[in-house]
Amino acid sequence: MISKIYPRDQIKQYLLIDVIALVFLLYMVLTAPSALGLWAKLGLLTAYLIAFYVALWRRDFYLLVAVLAGVAILTLLGVHLSASMLVFGFVFADLLGRARSKWHITIGIAAIGLMTFIVSRLEADDPFVQSITFLPVMIVQMILPVVIHIIERTKSLQGKLDAANQQLEHYIQQEERQRIARDLHDTLGQTLAMIKLKSELAARWIDRDSSKAKAELMDILTSSRTALKQVRELVSDMKFISLTQEIERSRELLRTAGIQLEAAGHSTLPLLSSVEETMLALCVREATTNIIKHSQAKHCFIRIDTAGDHVHVTIADDGVGLGGRNSGNGISSMMERMKSLQGSLTVDDAEGGGTVVSLLLPFRQQEKEEKPS
């Protein structure tokens, strides 16, 4: 029900502030001594509420009209009641910042400045002193629409970026499914066709020549073993993730999000087992995903160092940092992967701003497992 009275997307941030502002406005107007009668005050308050309600829901020309009406009402209240009524201009300054047109914002800002000028000249005994007193209020109210417009624009762009990332992830999943389908068709198709043909031959020979039928059955057994081996090879290929390829994949995703990646050390990657390299690659994937979603960074840095029997992977960005956020499922997953290989993970705020993820993994000095040919 309340979402029909007040926009749902603004309830959390603005509802309490607007309610407090309206309560104070009603109290100050109704209790202030002036030549205005009660009905005149109620009429101005009703007009103010109507202008506020229209500005709350609209983003087009009607928003500008509502803001101008609200500013005019506050000007009348400021002249006839008290110059302190100018403080409530913050309400319309905030709403003005959500206008789609920059021209509407410019006109509204000019109206706010004119409101302060008129009230300071007509209401006070000493206009100069009154102007100096309300100058900071006027400046902030004139800057606020620009700040709100930038914030709203950033939210809109972030929403579009998130949608683009989801589409990109869906596209990657589609490509992976198609790759798996191609591998299954190309690898197993011929072997399964062979098994089908041999089975038909064995069925024909079983009553005529048992020795030939037996030979065909032996061929079927050999082909089945070959098919099983091929399935194992495919599964092994699907499970293994190259760290170098993952870094290059992350580079493309980060570039799409407007983040430049600088990588060092991955060209001289130490020899790791398939499990070790896959775990590191998955951690790099999770870390870069978090950077895209939360960091608001412009640059990202990935460095791989080897010291003794340990490999150290550092993923850093120049974004907003942790900001007191609790570790989510992504960080927990990285910790579990490192813990399973007796490694460690640390996530800290960087000294110059941003976040640093450090992966430390012990590895055995061994040749990487050879994949079946």
Task: Please give a structural write-up.
- With 373 residues, this protein is α+β, with helices and mostly antiparallel strands.
- The protein is 67% helix and 10% strand.
- The protein is built from eleven helices and five strands; from the N terminus they run αααααααααβαββαββ.
- The chain has helices at 2-5, 11-31, 38-57, 61-80, 89-96, 102-122, 127-205, 210-239, 243-256, 274-295, 329-340; strands at residues 260-264, 299-307, 310-317, 344-349, 355-362.
- The chain has a five-stranded mixed β-sheet, with helices on one face.
- The longest helix is centred in the middle third of the chain and has 79 residues, at 127-205.
- The radius of gyration is 34 Å and the shape is elongated.
- One of its GO terms (molecular function) is protein dimerization activity.
- Residues 183-365 form the Histidine kinase domain.
- Its EC number is 2.7.13.3.
Structural class: alpha+beta
Q: What is the ordering of alpha helices and beta strands?
A: HHHHHHHHHEHEEHEE
Shape: elongated
Instruction: Round the mean pLDDT to the nearest integer and report it.
Output: 80
Number of separate structural domains: 3
* Count of distinct strands: 5
Largest sheet: 5 strands, mixed
Radius of gyration: 34 Å
Contiguous uncertain segments of 5+ residues: 366-373
Strand coverage percent = 5-15%
Please count the helical segments.
11
Question: Termini separation (Å)?
Answer: 65 Å
Helix content: 55-70%
InterPro entries: HATPase_C_sf (IPR036890), HATPase_dom (IPR003594), His_kinase_dom (IPR005467), Sensor_HK_TwoCompSys (IPR050482), Sig_transdc_His_kin_sub3_dim/P (IPR011712)
Keywords: ATP-binding, Kinase, Membrane, Nucleotide-binding, Transferase, Transmembrane, Transmembrane helix, Two-component regulatory system
EC number: 2.7.13.3
GO molecular function: ATP binding; phosphorelay sensor kinase activity; protein dimerization activity
